[in-house]
Every structure is written in structure tokens, then in C-alpha cells.
Design brief:
about 260 residues, alpha/beta, TIM Barrel, 8 strands, globular, binds phosphoenolpyruvate
Length: about 260
């Protein structure tokens, strides 16, 4: 059985006051509701502390959007796993396409970050996904296989229990154009079979695979109804408490 996980990726949005206002409003929306899904909120670094404080006893989890793979040292502007842990962070997003695209994160860097996070007792949301030209060129599976294998190589089956994969086709991120439920299902099934080839069927069956890319209250339920779609990583629609709450409320229980 695998957990449904719905995560909010705020990217470079919201200051501390706005982040706190969101948490108050979201908790109000979710009052007396026991969501089927595990809920993860990933604010920018500057708001982690405030959000951690407000989420205490809520059952919602705190996530960071990035991590450095070294423990400490001369890496100006970077944040280590130990620093995130000291703020009460549970999850970290690794390998988001914006990090790969705008900050030069290669498969190799992504793999180092995944290893550092897991060995530091942080859970990982690993993002993979193809560009539009890769999809149009018929190499989606090749790209997904390369990204998954590079990031998971050398991990143990035990470590995989702390890892979630987010399938995020780049052409669907922030564009308003989501993958169709069938496109998402096909990519998720392929990712699961790749993981099965590396770690065995049991590990792959228990792996949560989220879909990300223009998830909104209007399309969440249908996307998440597909057998291999186990949750969502939500950007734009997670910035407003009511729309994120609607997505969480429409999420099915564990599969
Ligand atoms: C994301 O950034 O992970 C994302 C899926 O963004 P959006 O929901 O805005 O497409």
C-alpha cells in the first residue's frame, strides 16, 4: 500500500507574513477534516521557521525546496541538510526542473543531493520530467529512465521508503496545460517499472509517485484517480489556501 501525498511548492513566493497568513487560512479550510493524503508545505527558506511553528501539532508536514549536498563549508548562499533538520523540516524537493534548467543541476548533482538528504533522515521528493521537445521527439521514456536511474543508483531498498518521485513534464509546469490523465498514468507506470527493475516489484509498488504540472482544483480528482498517480506536487494553485485545500480534499486515500 502506498500513501497519497499532496505537496505545495511555493517556489520564490511569499514573505514570512504571507506564509503565516496562508497557514492560518489553510488550517481553517481543513478544520475538522482528516485528509486522505499526507500534506506537505514547501515554503521558501526564509519562511520555514515561521511555518514550522504554525504547523506544530497540525499533522501537516514541512518541506524545503532545495538542499546542498555538503555538510557545511564555503558554499555561500547554500543550506545544508543539518540546517534544514534543525528547523523541523521533514521533506526536501530535489531536482525540480527549474533547478535543473536555471541553476545548472545535472543528474550527478541531483543524485548527490538525494543521497545527502536521505542519509540525513530527510524525506525526498525527487522531480523528473521531459521537455516539450523531448516529448515531441519521442524520447520521454528515455529521459525519465535516465533521470530515475541516475538519482536512485546506489540507494538501498530501505532508503526508497523515504523517497517520493514527482513526475513533472516541463511543458506542463506553470503553463496551465496539464498532462492528460492518460499521459500521466503512462509516465507513472513507466517510472514504476523502472524502479521495479532496479529494486524489485515490492519496493516499486510501495513507491508514491506524484504528478505535477498545472494541477488545479478542477483537474486534481481526475488526475489522481489513475491507478499509478498517487498524489500531486502543486505550484501555482498552492499559493492560495482555498485552492490548495480543494486539491487536498479531492485527493483519494492511499492505493
Ligand atoms: C511545480 O513547480 O512543481 C509545479 C507543478 O508548478 P505548477 O503547478 O504551477 O505547474
Amino acid at each position: 500500500m502506498r500513501k497519497t501525498i499532496v505537496a505545495a511548492n511555493w517556489k520564490m513566493n511569499k514573505d514570512v507574513d504571507e506564509a503565516s497568513e496562508f497557514v492560518y487560512a489553510f488550517q481553517e479550510e481543513m478544520k475538522d477534516l482528516d485528509p486522505n493524503a499526507e500534506v506537505v508545505i514547501c515554503p521558501p527558506f526564509i519562511a520555514l521557521d515561521a511555518v514550522a511553528e504554525l504547523l506544530q501539532e497540525s499533522g501537516f508536514k514541512l518541506g524545503a525546496q532545495n538542499i546542498h549536498y555538503e555538510n557545511d563549508g564555503a558554499f555561500t548562499g547554500e543550506i545544508s541538510a543539518r540546517m534544514l533538520k534543525s528547523l523541523g523540516v521533514h521533506y526536501v524537493i530535489v531536482g525540480h526542473s527549474e533547478r535543473r534548467q536555471f541553476f545548472g543541476e545535472t543528474d550527478e548533482i541531483v543524485a548527490k543531493k538525494v543521497k545527502k538528504a536521505l542519509s540525513s533522515d530527510l524525506k525526498v521528493i525527487l522531480c523528473v520530467g521531459e521537455s516539450l521537445s523531448e516529448r515531441d521527439g519521442g524520447v520521454t521514456e528515455k529521459v525519465l529512465e535516465r533521470q530515475v536511474k541516475a538519482a536512485l543508483d546506489g540507494l538501498t531498498a530501505q532508503q526508497l521508503t523515504s523517497l517520493v518521485i514527482a513526475y513533472e513534464p516541463i511543458w506542463a509546469i506553470g503553463t496551465g496545460r496539464n498532462a492528460t490523465p492518460q499521459q500521466a498514468q503512462d509516465a507513472h507506470a513507466f517510472i514504476r517499472s523502472t524502479v521495479a527493475g532496479m529494486f524489485g516489484k515490492e519496493v516499486a509498488t510501495s513507491l508514491t509517485i506524484q504528478y505535477g504540472g498545472s494541477v488545479k482544483p478542477e483537474n486534481a480528482a481526475e488526475l489522481l484517480s489513475r491507478p499509478d498517480v498517487d498524489g500531486a506536487l502543486v505550484g501555482g494553485a498552492s499559493l492560495k489556501a482555498d485552492s490548495f485545500a480543494k486539491i487536498v480534499k479531492s485527493s483519494p486515500a492511499s492505493k
